[in-house]
Amino acid sequence: MVMKKMVVSVIIISSIFLSNFCFAENTYKIGVLAKNGPVKALKMWKSTGEYLTAKVAGNFEIVPLGFDAVFPAIEKGEVDFFLVNSSMFITAKVNYGAKAIATMINSRQGKPLKSFGGVIFTSEENDEINSTGDLAGKTFMAVKKSSFGGWQMAYMELLSQGIDPFKDFSKLEFGGKHDNVVLAIQNGVADAGTVRTDTLERMAASGIIELSEFKIISSKKHGDFPFVHSTALYPEWPIAKTKGTSDQIAETVVGALKQLTPSDKAAKDAKIMGWTDALDYKGVEDLQIKLKVGAYK
Fold first, then answer.
1. What's residue 109's pLDDT?
2. Backbone angles phi, psi at 95, to 5 degrees
3. Residue 175 placed within a domain
4. How many structural domains comprise the chain?
5. pTM, two decimal places
6. What is the pLDDT of residues 126-152, one digit of tens each?
């Protein structure tokens, strides 16, 4: 009788353990670069976690990560998937074996975009800056050294036109956020600056600035790309899986993400149109190699 009770107890305990184990195995964490803080990141991406939970067997949790927290979380296996800028993805791919599984189709002023760039600009009233060469000896502001659209793209463009930002500018500083850079140029805190594409148009649409207040340096045209830009265009942010995440669950996640429509809450909250198969990020890696940044510094 005692033996029978012991056997039953073992079975119950084992069942509870296995149940908890399975639950843990079916919980997936998606790290999201919280470039504007964790509150905004959750507001944008929490419904994507809820969407995947409804579509895929498992519970998907959004984990906001600051710039300095992304790579430690990936390296330590604290996240299963992650969403970061294209350059940070390359660093994670090279250093930690990550793999892009889908590319975001962004929604910018109602337009679906799979690529983005950087824009270099100055005040319309600044008569001393009309070309890239005129930036030599001037003060310049970018977003962060790790910001792909808010610094690295412009850095690449400047070098290609013979300007070394770390030698030729009288001062190079970083404003931390895209909007900060725009406001700094507007108020004469720096002579020129760079932000990712659509920042100027977004701020103008919000009534914060007027586009006529600024002059675009080294303006380019790429097909029907709708926003002012000064650099080459690169693939939009990818969602990637960490090395330890199975291909099977990744494929299931991709299938669900590709079914997302612009009318879904997850798309509306994230301000995107949906997702597509992962694009080619070789150009991003080439940029890192050239600039000696990210995985190649």
1. 77
2. -85, -30
3. yes
4. 2
5. 0.86
6. 999 999 999 999 999 999 998 999 999
